[in-house]
Design a protein that fits this description.
The chain is of the alpha+beta class. The chain has four helices and four strands; from the N terminus they run αβαααβββ.
Length: 100
């Protein structure tokens, strides 16, 4: 689980619910390869990262219609991070694409 203090340092456009991370993300955070707070702030503020225009538009509609939200960030040349907020806004999960 991720500290909820992330929510207090940004102006979220939507509720994150419970903040979770997969084992792969947890290892990258532990190793110092990933500053997860930076990417959570971006996701919660509506900066969807490295998505196509159609995926960005889908996220913007999902904000209004309360559907699932997905962000993708290229952390390093070899590491892509996905952050997914569930449609019911009960949980937001940080994961690697290989862990989906």
């Amino acid at each position: 689980m991720i500290a909820s203090s992330v929510l207090s340092v940004c102006r979220p456009r939507f509720q994150a619910g419970r903040l979770l991370m997969t084992p792969g993300v947890q290892q990258l955070v532990h190793d110092g390869t990933l500053n997860l707070t930076r990417y959570l702030r971006r996701h919660l503020s509506g900066d969807w990262g490295d998505l196509s225009d159609s995926d960005r538009r889908a996220n913007n509609v999902a904000l209004r219609d309360r559907d699932r939200l997905l962000s993708s960030y290229q952390v390093t040349p070899d590491v892509t991070l996905w952050i997914i907020t569930e449609a019911d806004r009960q949980a937001t999960t940080a994961l690697l694409p290989s862990e989906y």
